[in-house]
Amino acid sequence: MTASIVNCQQITKRYGDKHALDELNVSIPENKIVGILGPNGSGKSTFFRMITGLVKPDSGEIEVLGKRPGSGINREIAYLPDRARWYPNHTVAGAFEWAEKLLPGFDIANAKELADFMEMKRDMRVSGMSRGQEARLMLILCMARNVPLIILDEPFSGIDVISRERIIEGMIDYLSDRDQTILISTHEIYEVEGMFDYAIFLNQGKAILSGDTEELRAQYGSMHDIFRQFYRYGKGGF
Amino acid sequence: MDIRQVGALTFQLDFSQPLYEQILEQIRSALAKGEIGLGEKIPSVREMAHALKINPNTVMRAYKELERDGLTEKRRGQGTFVTTSEERVKTFRAELVKEYIDDFLNKMESLGYSWEDIEGYMQERGSRRKGSDLT
Amino acid sequence: MPSSNVFWTLVKYELKSGYMTRKKMRKGKMPQKIWLMYAVLLFIVFLCFTVYATNQHWGFQLRNVWYFTLGLPWMLFGYGMGAIKNEWENSTEGWWLTLPYSRNTLIGAKYIAALLKTLYILLVTYALAIVYGVLYGVCISVLKGGFPLHEVIFFIVSGFWWYLLLMGLMPLMVSIGVLVAVIKYTNAKYISPLIYFFMFILGYGMYGGLGVMNQKHNLYSIFSGETSPGSSPFPVVFFYFLIAGWILAYLLTRFSAYLLKNKLDV
């Protein structure tokens, strides 16, 4: 049994009378690429915001890297927020400079390598970028960090297929041989499911199934199949 | 089901089955059929993961098993190569033969056929095959 | 990374960040160049108008112009607000709030940067006022012969007192701006009306206090030309108020940081 990097016990978070997280119990193993899967509104983003200390649980306990979430532990987390954008007045090079000065563990050599691979010119300005280009930039800013935990909230949504493929290939190449845990939330599973070592399915604020993806495949079929089976009967928008 | 080409190898991945087993099986069968020759280099874990768009750990697991079976060998700084030992591939083919036969026999026995029945069927099949060869 | 270094890096980036947010660009707000053209045009029209007013013997005095700037404190407030609001309008708040630095550092850097920006604006507008005063004098001397040195100097000195006051108010106004913006994104939204009410009282107190505390010689009597701007129009007690305002500014900024840490509503 490997050590866990994030541990949640009975986490509950309400917005008004809606439960974003409902007595969630989750334990995320270290050094794996983990898919956090579920339809919109299943609690994925709230869960990530809780790991980074943006949201505090109404009740329950959460430990990240053995500590309580907060600005202290965020040194060791690279986080791509949900629906985030980048500062429109920056260029690619300017964003790298920003990251080098403000994000601990940011490796600029690595970032440049990724930028070449993802075909990002250094002098391109964010305000003139397509959504896919901006997404690639933000992803590089996260991936080029030598930190134990990387969290990517819906990194593929609203991105063209070419960018998506580039991103996936980049992740496979650069993130594979490092001791990092990567959490990726998505509701578009089909093209990306091969990347995951481990998967956690969320529905209405609860973890309804989790495990090693190869074992889940042997037992239930593809992540895509599991997803469809679960949410066809759920209340979600399927 | 996706068909993907990695170097000389062709893979068909079905995401509803464990991926590592499929990779293992498909490389083994390529070896047994001679689609990749003795001493040939096979794609690195990274190349394979990249082309198949899957987790490198999964590829690694299959590669480790191939190595453990002696079908491939790692050369320091050069990558992974198919074994140069003809002997090893021969024994592997023999193992496969044994495996297929066992599999066949198990199935027949589970249908309730005795060894004599099976022998009879095999002979009948054999002579029919010879017959068709003559024409 | 030593923390003071990070603090000034944050301040530097804050200063560099433009006025235009993505949202404003989408809405098609005026580009800066066109805006500048209008400003120059307005400046010229205003100059001509005041020169004309003097010529018509309407009893116009150059220092009356300062009356038009009585709204400046509210602009300071806007700068404090913008510093926070821009993160949300650019959808970058997630990056900003998960930077591994304390909320005091993050808010403090925005606050200091907003102060520096307002200071810059005050200096620029004062310099513009001096340019305006001199141009006015030149126009008058062309029309009437003889540069109205006295009037121009009185104008500049009157402005000096007013700008001294603005700089004293600046820390408090910016901190209120920051707080009002922060509150919008926290569970403390319900105290917004309270803050506005507090600001109304504060504004009323300030504008009223300026005239009441010394009825014979104050900022208004200087602006109107009733008294000479040669001596300070502020009674000593006014400086106590200012210092109290600075302490309050500090507390409000700390309070903003506290809200962002514990009451964030995202």
The CATH class of the largest domain in chain B is Mainly Alpha
Proportion of beta-strand residues of chain A: 25-35%
Main beta-sheet annotation of chain A: 6 strands, mixed
The termini of chain B sit apart by 39 Å
Task: Count the domains of chain B.
Answer: 2
- CATH homologous superfamily assignment of the largest domain in chain B: Winged helix-like DNA-binding domain superfamily/Winged helix DNA-binding domain
**Would you identify the regions of chain B where 5 or more consecutive residues have pLDDT less than 50?**
none
> What is the C-alpha radius of gyration of chain B, as a whole number of Å?
19 Å
- Average pLDDT of chain B works out at 88
Class by alpha and beta content of chain A: alpha/beta
Task: Bin the helical content of chain B.
Answer: 55-70%
Organism (chain C): Scopulibacillus daqui
Protein name (chain C): ABC-2 type transport system permease protein
Keywords (chain C): Membrane, Transmembrane, Transmembrane helix
Pfam families (chain C): ABC2_membrane_5
Commentary on this structure:
The complex is a heterotrimer of chains A (238), B (135) and C (266). With 238 residues, chain A is α/β, with parallel strands linked by helices. Chain A contains 7 helices and 9 strands, in the order E-E-E-H-E-E-H-H-H-E-H-E-E-E-H-H. Chain A is globular, with a radius of gyration of 17 Å. Chain B is of the alpha+beta class and 135 residues long. Chain B has 2 domains: 2-82, Winged helix-like DNA-binding domain superfamily/Winged helix DNA-binding domain (Arc Repressor Mutant, subunit A, Orthogonal Bundle); 86-131. Helices cover 59% and strands 15% of the residues of chain B. Chain B has helices spanning 19-32, 45-52, 56-68, 86-110, 115-134; strands at 2-6, 9-13, 41-42, 72-75, 79-82. A 3-stranded antiparallel sheet of chain B has the order 3-5-4, covered by helices on one side. In chain B, strands 1-2 form a two-stranded antiparallel ribbon. In chain B, strand 4 and strand 5 (79-82) form a beta hairpin. Chain B starts with a strand and ends with a helix. The mean pLDDT of chain B is 88. Chain C is mainly α. Chain C has one domain. Chain C is 74% helix and 0% strand. Chain C has 10 helices and no strands. The longest helix of chain C is centred in the middle third of the chain and has 42 residues, at 103-144. Chain A binds chain C through residues 49, 52-56, 71-75, 77, 79, 81-89, 98, 101-104, 127, and chain C through 1, 6, 9-10, 13, 16-18, 20-22, 25, 90-95, 97-103, 262, 264, 266.
